[in-house]
Structure prediction request, 345 residues.
Amino acid sequence: MKKLTLSGTSTRSDIYIGRGILDAVQAQCSEVFSPSRVHIVTDSTVAPLYLERVQAQFDLPTSVTIIPVGEEHKCLSTVEQIYHDLLSVGMTRKDLIIALGGGVTGDITGFAAATFLRGVSLCQIPTTLLAQVDSSVGGKTGVDLPEGKNLVGAFYQPRLVLIDPDVLNTLPESTLIDGMAEVIKYGYIADASILDLLSDYRANLEELIYACVKIKCDVVSQDEHDTGLRMILNFGHTIGHAAEKLGNYTDLTHGQAVAVGMVTAMKLSNAMGAPCDLLPNLVSQLKQVGLPTELTYDREAIFKTLLSDKKKFGATVNFILVRTAGTAEIVPIEAETLHTFILDL
Ligand code: NAD
Ligand code: GLY
Prediction:
């Protein structure tokens, strides 16, 4: 089992990664929490797979909220349901909330934990690759509004994150592949050695997860509240979010959108400075894991959609460019320059 620590401005997350850690949840929790009761939030797919295995470890009173599967349930009414469940069992601020599931469960539960009684201790147990390498670490929590994704939320660090790569064995193939987009992203923005592990990524999953989480910890420890460096984690996400939105969040999965977004950002990296030769490798790595590389949406629509994205500042858009594998740059690009580039794609 490997350990990483994320030091926030006033908080600390201990992150453990290891096969079989799901059977040591109670033991790990008892190192850092002293609750009188534990409430577990999970979803209706993960519950039959892993809930009992986690719940049975506690000799304290435990209770459960099982939320329906799907991004459409990442909303305030689900959070409200969790609050009611917490109140009905008498949870206090000294107790513990566990999020057991993918990024949707983690984001909702994190937000409920951040806001219930102004903050209850939180342990994240991520069960998708995306949640293991990205969403469970770093303290971004929240829900969607009808107007858009992740519009309500809080920065709230989980005190403990327990990552068991074995739970990925039950993931549908497409969901695993989706998470690989974020893994490839980390390789380009911060650690090119990740890219060497891609050809046999299934065999290298534990090592890949550790390398990605280490990067996330390093970045978030330096910029917990996303005012500077943390933006590098959005490589491929600016165009990706626009494509996701244009496809009504159904045509493309998040990972597929990030994949085509990274290809576009790499073309922009080439266009904006000294040409680099990373594009062919990126395209073949994405194809190799089964991710798309072609942006199929109308270019004008992509431009308009990304301008409405929350990462636009004034007349410029902050773009993450990569000209050397393992190094990212945050480059403000004039909206008109970007417009011309996108129309020429
Ligand atoms: P998800 O939580 O919907 O999980 C995907 C599917 O996999 C679900 O059907 C789920 O039930 C199922 N599943 C989960 N674990 C399983 C397992 N071990 N075996 C079998 N099935 C399993 O989606 P996701 O891709 O994990 O997360 C997407 C969400 O994460 C989005 O809402 C996104 O906004 C959010 N996100 C948050 C951050 C952050 O920093 N907080 C970062 C990236 C993404
Ligand atoms: N997923 C991007 C971030 O945590 O900042």
The CA atoms of residues 20 and 141 lie 26 Å apart.
